[in-house]
């Protein structure tokens, strides 16, 4: 007559074990759905359109920052202004100089992870200018205006910035540049966000604006999830939107866990 009691006790223990196992199992959060895109020097946010279209089609809420390129502080402020409008966590993405911006603005509580697209990921005490001396690029296109803004010689822009874009598109961009304050390239970042937040990195292997070896150094130092794109110019975010969007979505999916 004791066997039914033993069976009941065993059933109770099994049920308790199931409850314990369910409680101990990790809960997987939903993917991050907000994506914020930050452009680099000399351009505006319009170049993100192909990536924007892919991400929005896949169900992400995408916002572009249109920073003024007048000073590093003002560009970071423009980015934080967008972050403040979000209703949840985000993946913060930067191209080129935009990488320096997200390295500073990425300390915002909304930001779960960072994605660098052929971008600067500075450490304390570094500047884009100083790192460029350690890892020289291969362009001679940079021109300074009398009031200390920089732009790229339009004749050199297609080959140096956008060699893998259609020629007509590259020439249009060459004549639609946003001159950028020279001061942004000597800005320093006291608390780089990549030191505390996960990051993803895309290396453009044919980049003439940022040395690909400098990009690799940034990615390795930050322990970024890294991909390299063959034949990609500095305009990799425009010429390879599928690969860029895939990397951003990987960050969004894994940042939610």
UniProtKB/TrEMBL annotation:
Coiled-coil residues: none
Gene Ontology MF term list: hydrolase activity
UniProt signal peptide: 1-29
InterPro entries to which the protein is assigned, alphabetical: AB_hydrolase_1, AB_hydrolase_fold, Sec-Metab_Biosynth_Hydrolase
Pfam families on file: Abhydrolase_6
UniProt domain AB hydrolase-1: residue ranges: 35-246
Species name: Caballeronia glathei
Designated name of the protein: Hydrolase
Keywords per UniProt: Hydrolase, Signal
């Amino acid at each position: 007559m004791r066997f039914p009691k033993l069976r009941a006790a065993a059933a109770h223990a099994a049920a308790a074990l199931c409850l314990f196992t369910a409680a101990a199992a990790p809960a997987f959060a939903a993917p991050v759905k907000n994506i914020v895109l930050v452009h680099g020097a000399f351009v505006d946010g319009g170049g993100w359109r192909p990536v924007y279209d892919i991400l929005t089609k896949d169900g992400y809420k995408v916002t572009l920052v249109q920073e003024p390129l007048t000073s590093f502080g003002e560009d970071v402020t423009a980015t934080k202004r967008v972050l403040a409008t979000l209703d949840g966590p985000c993946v913060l993405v930067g191209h080129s100089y935009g990488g320096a911006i997200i390295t500073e603005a990425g300390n915002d509580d909304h930001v779960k992870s960072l994605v660098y697209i052929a971008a600067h990921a500075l450490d304390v005490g570094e500047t884009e200018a100083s790192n460029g001396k350690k890892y020289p690029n291969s362009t001679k296109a940079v021109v300074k205006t009398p009031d200390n803004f920089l732009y790229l010689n339009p004749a050199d822009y297609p080959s140096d910035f956008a060699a893998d874009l259609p020629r007509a598109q590259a020439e249009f961009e060459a004549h639609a540049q946003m001159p950028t304050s020279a001061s942004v390239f000597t800005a320093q970042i006291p608390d780089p966000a990549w030191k505390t937040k996960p990051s993803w990195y895309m290396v453009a292997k044919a980049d003439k604006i940022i040395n690909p070896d400098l990009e690799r150094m940034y990615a390795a130092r930050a322990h970024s999830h890294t991909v390299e794109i063959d034949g990609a110019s500095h305009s990799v975010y425009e010429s390879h939107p599928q690969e860029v969007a895939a990397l951003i979505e990987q960050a969004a999916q894994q940042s939610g866990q």
